[in-house]
């Protein structure tokens, strides 16, 4: 969530807003590229709160061992309430607004106490957010059977999912449990907040934006995406979210030797860790497909290495040498996707990945694993026709033959229709973010709105 929030900060800073970013020490380095481009952005560094179940030194969800509930992170960050309140109160000219991620719902209460406005930032799309809001508003009970289909009947197109595919955080809710109750309060506080900024664009999700405005009962909803830095779009290797674990020179040299649109890029985002079986299935699919590929494999924490997570099957790298690049750790994803050699993207359908795939004009292969990814896949596959559905968390292992076939087809000459559709989506995204495009106008409107809040404060 941090990466798009920082991208947003850049777009707001270049439009003249004065910004302070609250960050904890271990995440500070992620801000470097942003701070070097925007001298007016300030940082406010608070120590990460001590929290019993979070090992000391872990300050980012991507480093949290899978046996610790992600909602612990939400709960832990709530401890920043008091330090932030004190900071605001002691500041000679404190901010007039708080923009915070949807997992920081407590900032709504803080904003109310301070008499400033809070804007929710959604790094998920409008359709996914609408489903989350609907769940936390209506609090449906879990069915006995996890395969029972749940319908979001008030949301346009009435999306339906087996229960196990709906929001992981909602499914983990346990009435009376302090972490769950804090998460619920935060989600409900999002709905009550003054405004909403979504990293998406009107043409992509128009009906869901309309729905959100109705659901929230106001029009203070801004569709500002895709808020990618200009460098990603212009193909300058950016240091975004972290520095690459592979040399840019080697990566570029390798990609430059490949034919146009023949490489498949595979990445499951920052949260998903594939199990040993899932790793074997993906590896087997890649091997049998015969395609050229880059596979970015998330590094598991030390404790999990022995459990087989993210384990690359033995001998696999030798067998695919020359046509496959396996990278353990961080890669410049946006840059890779925009390289002319990349012809398909096997994605877990994290919202940032979807947007980056769209902006790069790369046809996608959907393999949703959890969180909001099933909703992202519905939008991308069924509604936008921008991806093929290959497999998901429940069947990656049994679908490895299908995966091999689909990978092969995705970079073959037969995939012309998919390429044309990807290009249409790319053009729609570029239109939204260009000067006077819908997202550019929404960013300008948002900045105007915030500046208006400043004068309200000046007037007392
Ligand atoms: O080696 C890497 C790995 C990731 N990324 C970037 O990291 C981001 C990953 O974001 P996303 O595709 O959204 O996946 P997750 O990290 O899984 O994101 C979480 O947050 C998203 C936004 O709310 C949700 O849609 C997802 O389901 C949830 O898992 C993207 O910008 C990638 O470009 C890199 O640059 N290099």
Task: Write a brief caption for the model.
The chain has helices at 2-13, 32-37, 70-77, 81-90, 106-114, 126-138, 168-171, 178-192, 202-216, 230-234, 248-256, 276-289, 302-305, 316-319, 333-337, 351-360, 373-383, 400-410, 416-433, 438-458, and strands at residues 20-23, 42-45, 97-101, 117-122, 149-151, 160-162, 195-198, 221-223, 263-267, 292-297, 324-328, 342-347, 364-366, 387-389. It is an alpha/beta fold. The protein is globular and about 60 Å long.
Folded structure, characterized:
By secondary structure, this protein is of the alpha/beta class. 44% of the residues lie in helices and 13% in strands. A hairpin with an 8-residue loop joins strand 5 (149-151) and strand 6. The longest helix has 21 residues, at 438-458. Bound molecules: uridine-5'-diphosphate-glucose.
Beta-strand percentage range? 5-15%
Helix content: 40-55%
Please state the CA-atom Rg, rounded to the nearest Å: 22 Å
Separation, N- and C-terminal Cα atoms: 34 Å
Number of helices, where a helix is a run of at least 4 consecutive DSSP H or I residues? 20
Mean pLDDT: 94
